[in-house]
Amino acid sequence: METLYNVDCVQRILDHFLAMDQVTGGASPCSIDDDGQLIGSPSLTPITMVAKLIDGYLAEVAPDVNLKLPKFQALAAAVPEYARPLDDGLYRAIDIYLK
Question: According to its UniProt record, which protein family does this protein belong to (predicted)?
Answer without folding.
Answer: Belongs to the NPH3 family.
